[in-house]
Amino acid sequence: MPVHLIAVDCVNLRALFLNVSPSMSCEILVQPDLLDLGEIQLEVRHLPASKPGQPTFVLLHEGLGCAAQWRDFPEQLLVATGCGVLVYSRQGYGRSSPVSLPRPLDYLSHGGPVELARLLDALGLNDVVLLGHSDGASIVLAYAALNDPRVWGSIALAPHVLVEARTLAGIRQTTAQWDAGPLRSQLMRHHGDNVDGAFHGWSDTWLHADFSLEPLVARLGEITRPLLVIQGRDDQYATPEQLTVIDAHVDAPCRCVLLEDCQHFPQREATQATLGLIVDFVTALMDDRDPQTAPVIS
Fold it and tell me: How many Cβ atoms are within 10 Å of 100's Cβ, its own excluded?
């Protein structure tokens, strides 16, 4: 399947899709809470669907992220789609329970999906669309390969399936910023006492000589439900080869899109184009569940 190139423009897609004012914002703001999973607690925030019969987006953050660092993107998703949105901080991030270091080297392909399954079980979410960014997108791909019937489809923003030289160079540069001091202070605002575990759990794992994403690549062919993959052309942590590998290994309906004028954060740097692609994807998923329609996912 071809990789599509899209140039970002300034059209406000929320207004186009919903015929609302571009200045409209979601009025529902649910404060974060802690979900008790027994030995750990996870920070969660849920925005209920604005229309009945809609799935819930479950958002998985990047390697240095947490629930709060999605900023207003969850509200924008709700406004654009009407779907519910669940954001959470994985263990070791945000206000969630701390994590022991070092992280296992398979935390993206195994630990993350195990935690996600426990979250879905605890919250009783039976109709979801997974949406992850960066490390979170890699976890989404790994979970998609399980073909959980609760998952309608999956969306990966700037996913990693290869350990590239560009990725490692970016992590080393970020580590230098951490060592210099200011980055730690910035991240502490989001992670509090988890800040050291969040950073070293990410950087030390990625820079470990034995770290590999080959187990994840080996499972991409097991994905059976629709997949949308979005990456920025100017991603400073990855090359378009990430999309090439995903497209070559996934046999399920899969659309890979390379956005122009975008780096590692499509949800921030190309928000309108990213929302448009997500709306199209979710609309097709919902049509697929309506026997009176015939969706086309290209």
Answer: 10
